[in-house]
Write a structure and sequence with these properties.
Helix content is about 40%, strand content about 20%. The structure holds nicotinamide-adenine-dinucleotide.
Length: about 500
């Protein structure tokens, strides 16, 4: 009998009343280990009703009190970091150090959200007209929802619910059904920290639950992170119903290596960013663009040597650099891309397909794979692979290299490796993507800046976390106020006793 993972609705675990379930696998051994209920529309509605009931009094709490609940939540998560990381690794497959990083990067956003008393302060103009003051209020939206992908089951939920709840909203989280246990534990720990029942509910599910979230009239905003195809579906559906939406999608990030780069550093950074977490990161660096033939040869030799030292292993192997892919189906998809790249004429320099790990025979492992002489016309270049596959593209000049990420359909991030400040500045200014690294391979912005790509990597205008997170989960109300004069004196002026029919001048 498989372990049952519950929903967390209205402050309590709930087994689910639908008839559909998904299996949650142990990717390191390739076997089912639990099952998770897939919510019906009625279960989503129950979570929304609990959220709507709890939200007004949560919003009426002082921001300082809300911040203290989040601070206590952070303390509780930190005290269980190892246990949560083990749970995360057991369902996702990433190595333990990476799972800890997943949780800790999420806690960075919680820490940012603890500054909410300061972040919610509005604007004030005294004497905008005679006797008139104008001020703005940042108010919560009410009930909001987040739909998250499998690859960061702790960080991405915290990107969303941290700012949302700090701002006074109630939050419905629909995490990935592939690794759903940690999100439930996070919701339980937030309740233990003092969040009232209904302020954070976790409802598992697939398209049926997502479509119920899109359609529910009481959900004011939807934050989504996942593949571009689903991001577009959520964005189109929810905006058509008048909801506020931010929907982050897929990626194909490029690392440009100029001839003057520190090639040892660039190769180390690119290998780490391409293969870390088995390449299942939206800010992974799966394309290395070498400028000039000599750079390409020197980079390739260093990458081959770095890959030779790389170790794939089960998540609990402390020496392992990365673990298995999340599922058999995803592994199959990555394998198909490797076959496609070879058919398209790419040179297979290192083939990871034969990897066998003693003691983990059924696991969804794939060794690091290096492809050279990849060209922009290849479909394996144009599409996101999301696995441990690094493609080298050779460019003749800086301009040709700059054009590659700029013209690519995805526009999450790009990095440049160079010693030239001028070239780096030119690249950062002109490249057509949302996040740029200069000798930094994974330029994920820190929590108090905001995260978001361009083109097919993001639908909607407002990024995740930082001040954009506060903007997304609040709306501005502007108040123009005039109080009767406390004592006779210089008032609004002559003609007070007659109504004014013109647009008042200030
Ligand atoms: P996914 O799109 O398959 O799933 C994301 C969420 O949508 C999950 O909660 C899933 O249950 C739900 N979903 C899946 N299919 C659906 C459908 N047909 N209708 C409605 N909902 C559906 O993505 P994934 O495989 O979990 O995650 C990997 C993807 O996420 C990659 O493309 C990666 O680049 C992207 N990603 C992007 C960012 C970013 O910030 N841009 C961050 C992390 C991951």
């Amino acid at each position: 009998m498989l372990r049952a993972i519950p929903h967390f609705i209205a402050g309590a675990r709930s087994p689910g009343c639908g008839e559909r379930f998904a299996e949650v696998h142990d990717p390191a051994h390739g076997s089912p280990q639990a099952r998770v209920p897939l919510a019906t529309g009625a279960e989503v509605a129950r979570a929304v009703e609990a959220a709507a009931a709890a939200q007004p009094s949560w919003a009426a709490e002082s921001p300082q009190r809300r911040a203290r609940v989040l601070a206590e939540f952070k303390r509780l998560v930190e005290s269980r970091l190892q246990e949560l990381a083990e749970l995360l690794s057991s369902e996702h497959g990433k190595v333990l150090a990476d799972s800890r990083g997943d949780i800790e990067r999420g806690l960075d956003v919680i820490e940012f959200a603890c500054g909410i008393p300061h972040l919610l302060k509005g604007e004030y103009t005294q004497g905008a007209g005679r006797g008139i003051d104008v001020y703005s209020l940042r108010q919560p939206l009410g009930v909001v929802a987040g739909i998250t992908p499998f690859n960061f089951p702790a960080m991405i939920p915290m990107w969303m619910f941290g700012p949302a709840i700090a701002c006074g909203n109630a939050f419905i989280l629909k995490p990935s059904e592939q690794d759903p246990s940690v999100p439930v534990r996070l919701a339980e720990l937030l309740a233990e920290a003092g969040a009232p029942a209904g302020i954070l509910s976790v409802v598992h599910g697939d398209r049926e639950a997502v479509d119920a979230i899109i359609a529910h009239p009481l959900i004011a905003a939807v934050s989504f992170v996942g593949s571009s195809q689903v991001a577009q579906h959520v964005y189109a559906g929810a905006t058509a119903l008048g909801k506020r939406v931010q929907a982050m999608g897929g990626a194909k990030n490029h690392g440009i290596v100029l001839p003057d780069a520190d090639l040892d550093q660039a190769a180390r950074d690119i290998a780490g960013a391409a293969f870390g977490s088995a390449g299942e990161r939206c800010m992974a660096l799966p394309v290395a663009v070498a400028v000039g033939g000599d750079t390409a040869e020197a980079l390739r030799a260093r990458l081959v040597s770095a890959i030779g030292r790389l170790r794939v292993g089960v998540p609990t192997d402390r020496e392992a650099d990365y673990g298995p892919l999340v599922s058999a189906a995803h592994r199959e998809r990555v394998l198909r891309f490797i076959e496609l790249a070879v058919r398209e004429g790419a040179e297979l320099v290192i083939d990871g397909r034969g990897l066998e790990l003693p003691g983990a025979a059924g696991g969804y492992f794939l060794g690091p794979t290096l492809l050279d002489r990849v060209t922009p016309a290849m479909r394996s270049y144009q599409e996101e692979i999301f696995g441990p596959v690094l493609q080298i593209v050779r460019a003749a000049s800086f301009e040709e290299a700059l054009a590659l990420p700029s013209a690519h359909p995805y526009g999450n991030g790009a990095a440049i490796f160079t010693r030239s400040g001028g070239a780096a500045r030119e690249f950062a200014t002109r490249v057509n993507v949302g996040m740029v690294g200069i000798n930094v391979p994974i330029p994920v912005p820190v929590a108090y800046h905001s995260f978001g790509g361009w083109k097919r990597s993001a639908f909607g205008d407002v990024n995740q976390h930082g001040m954009d997170g506060v903007r997304f989960f609040t709306r501005i109300k502007t108040v123009t106020a005039r109080w009767p004069a406390a004592r006779p004196g210089p008032g609004p002026g002559p003609g007070d006793d007659r109504p004014s029919y013109a647009m008042p001048a200030v």
